[in-house]
Design brief:
Distance between the termini: 40 Å
Shape: elongated
Number of strands: 6
Largest sheet: 6 strands, antiparallel
CATH topology: Yope Regulator, Chain: A
Order of helices and strands: HEEEEHEEHH
Structural class: alpha+beta
CATH architecture: 2-Layer Sandwich
Strand order of the largest sheet: 1-2-3-4-6-5
CATH class: Alpha Beta
Helix content: 25-40%
Number of helices: 4
Strand content: 15-25%
Radius of gyration: 16 Å
Mean pLDDT: 95
Length: about 160
Amino acid sequence: MASREYSRPIAEAIDNYLIENDWSISFDEESGVFRFGLSIDGKLKQIRYVIVVNEQSYTSYAISPIGADKDDARIMKEMAEFACRANYNLKLGNFELDMRDGEVRFKVHTDCTGMVPNRDIIDNSISCAAAMFERYGTAVAGIVFNDETAEKAVEKCEEDM
């Protein structure tokens, strides 16, 4: 990634949080991007994180290890519908589907205008995405591997909400 402007204090706060939690991370000084993996409960077991630090904010992306086959129109349609259905009642963050390659991810954007995020804010932005994949990972897997419809897959995940 090319060199770009980002907030060093925000990056330092995120770095300190990740070090405190003893996570194996990589940080690109030129671009202000963190990368690491996290084990989660549920069908997916592991997600990749990319945290992009900006000048007055940061965005956490949790990326599913499985995605839609971009060449399978049915699965791409179901996964797009999954994102819409799952996102409907979410308060913090949202699922995204990359229509170019089928990648499924959960995004949490954190505005830091006038402040550096504290430990609780950083923890919330990271754990929210993990919780969403723990809840909805079964739907992603069901659509990709079991030909489930998005409607049924999301309904199953939301039964106990």
